[in-house]
Amino acid sequence: MTRRHAALRVRHPRDLPPVGAARPILLAVTVAAAVAVAGLLGGCGHPLSSGPPGAASSPGTPGSAAPGTTPQPTAWPGNAVIGIVGLGAGDTEIAKAVADFSEAVAAEDLVRMRGAAGGLQNLVNGLSKEVDRISIYPPMAGLVDQYRTAFAPMLDGARKLQDAIDAGDAKGIVSATERITEGMQ
How far apart, in whole angstroms, are the C-alpha atoms of residue 133 and residue 125? Predict the structure, then answer.
């Protein structure tokens, strides 16, 4: 590798820290599962719930039902659950995008780097719609912030990388690559 291209070297994906969205996805899925299980256990008279089936522990307590009423599961607004599932699937796609980009950089292949940057833009734009789906559910606010914080530099870097490649700007390529990597931390 020439000295000029040494700054473009990107670590292999297995050497990178986990994609920033992985931990929040795991947390969101865990929270979603816990809420669903708690709703089922608390509202259906499961042995772990407090009291016999149909008995209210106190009026208004989640999971309790007044005599003669049917318990209701936790209501997730809109398509929040679909958004969480989409983001979970998207996390794998981000890992693939990182691998594609890393291989293109290692091969010093500007055409593949440009293509990987375009693919990353499309992926992040699609995943942003899933973030919008979960943003309507207040307990997901922290997760929404983490995704938006990660996606902004990834999109910015991908756009700048394509522009720098088109302009033949080596410093711009390095700067844009660093910007993409910033979002993946």
Answer: 13
At 159 the three-state DSSP class reads helix
pLDDT above 90 (res 33): no
pTM given for the model: 0.60
Q: Is 174 exposed, middle or buried (0-12, 13-18, 19+ CB in 10 A)?
A: middle
Angle (nearest 5°) at CA 26 between 22 and 32: 140
Percent composition of the chain: helix, strand, coil (DSSP 3-state, to 5): 70, 0, 30
Q: Is 51 helix (H, G, I), strand (E, B) or coil?
A: coil
What's 108's DSSP letter? T
The rounded distance, in Å, linking the Cα atoms of 121 and 119 is 5
**Cβ(100)–Cβ(61) below 8 Å:** no
